[in-house]
Specification:
By secondary structure, the chain is an alpha/beta fold. It has a single domain (10-258), classed as Rossmann fold. The chain is 46% helix and 14% strand. It has helices at residues 9-13, 28-39, 51-61, 77-90, 114-142, 168-188, 209-222, 231-242, 260-263; strands at residues 19-23, 43-48, 67-71, 96-99, 149-154, 193-200, 253-256. It has a seven-stranded parallel β-sheet with strand order 3-2-1-4-5-6-7, sandwiched between helices. Strand 5 (149-154), helix 6 and strand 6 (193-200) form a beta-alpha-beta unit. The longest helix is centred in the middle third of the chain and has 29 residues, at 114-142. The mean pLDDT is 90.
Amino acid sequence: MADNQFTTHTELFGLRGKYALVTGGTRGIGMMIARSLLQAGARVVISSRNADTCAEAQRLLSEFGDVQAIPADLSRHDECQRLADLVQADSERLDILVNNAGAMRREPLETFPDEAWDAVIDLNLKSPFWLVQALLPALRKAGTADDPARIINIGSIAAIHVAPSPNYSYASSKAALHQLTRVLARELGPQHVTVNAVAPGVFPSQMMDSTLDAIGDTIAASAPLRRLGRDDDMAGAAVFLASRAGSYLTGAIIPVDGGTATTASGIH
């Protein structure tokens, strides 16, 4: 039996003293995650493209802990580097990086424009890679064998099964992000950094508003658990991966989707 026995919830799931960056943390799933990390005791930096949105999210989240907002267009390499420089100027250690910023474009197959494809790939796939590159010194500094630094990539069940309504660039970018997660997990594990991904199902968010207005009830009814995702579903997954409870997990893709992807026809 191991010498270290945890007896309290706080020891397993608490994040007091940890420093986290959540991209796309001003709304939707990103804000759910930022709030959960704050409530667990972490100090959190959030980022998104719009300065006003950042300021409002910081105001709302400040109720739950120490939060800072930094506007940045993370579809650009130079902006990823600028954000990383600001984070590392504040602290030489970064315990938790949540790559959540993302975009979706729906266009017909025959006319899907190059700029739409590139915009989605730049933000959903290149941005997480650029941020890992730029923040690796701080992640290495924070990680130890017993308590590694954490990279949490936000993927999608669109990368696990084929949705009835195809989304070419989005699904492709998230599938690539899942594989990047595995590749980085193998490389960074010996450096005391874990890399995992959460693959959300359908959660109420600005990105999904029009879809949910049209077929939200149908989507909920198709899930084995017969509902959409809730804030606490995403909070639980994020805190688990960021905390001591998730310290021996790396290279995993965790669906948080009510069972949709893994029980869909043709998925085993």
